Amino acid sequence: MRRSLPPRGTRPGHPPPRLVAVLLALGAVAYSSWLPEAALGTGLDPVQSYVSELAATDRRLGGVFRTADLVSGTLLVVAALWALAVSARRRWAVTGWVGLALFGAATAADSRLPLSCAPTADAACAAREDAGLVPLTHAAHAVSSSVAVAGALTAMAALTLAARRYGWWPPVARTGAVLLVLAGTATVWTLAAVAAFEADRGHWGLGAAQRLQVLLIALWLLTLAWALLREGRDAPGRREAPSARAEAPEAP
Fold first, then answer.
1. Which end of the chain, N or C, is less surrounded by CB atoms within 10 Å?
2. Secondary structure of the chain as H, E, C letters
3. pTM
């Protein structure tokens, strides 16, 4: 009998991680719920406002965006845990999936720790925030958002390195590093813009920088999802163990 090898990156005896790919894709779509904001009439300037301000409790559609973040984070946590269960236990792969789980958990936490108002669009809100008169969720949200970005960049770096080092997921191996560098650059721009805004030196395109950052993270997630789907689709009967290429005699 012929025995084919499991897909690259999959632990022997475990099924191809097609479910991981579907969860990643759905999580990326939910994470991109801000894209139609102009058509939805949110009242926020996408060049200047935080993405998180869309989900503020005083915004008309805040509940919609909070739900999208909760769904996205939950899907990504499940995807990462499932991947850890079915994937080969290689150092960079494990690091990447743990980073993705952290990203998902922090994104879900973001949805439960919303801003109460939009400081970039509401001077009174900014004044209350400066005076410490806003709910503690503002500070907690800043922490969870920072953890989410750190988890996302860790996942992008580690899983891209895993793809290149172990010969897995060609789309990620080809484009993952480019998306990582661009996301890192957008993150530096975002941090600089936040510092400028908090120092009353303008917005520095804060909203544009953060939207570019989250868009690049979503694109990387979709790239990984596509790579996993291709790996699962190409797996059956395509890769055989070198020692099993010849027919083995059937057992009597």
1. C
2. CCCECCCCCECCCCCCCHHHHHHHHHHHHHHCCCCCHHHHCCCCCCCCCCHHHHHCCCCCCHHHHHHHHHHHHHHHHHHHHHHHHHECCCHHHHHHHHHHHHHHHHHHHHHHCCCCCCCCCCHHHHHHHHCCCCCCHHHHHHHHHHHHHHHHHHHHHHHHHHHHHHCCCHHHHHHHHHHHHHHHHHHHHHHHHHHHHHCCCCCCCHHHHHHHHHHHHHHHHHHHHHHHHHHHHHCCCCCECHHHCCCCCCCC
3. 0.87
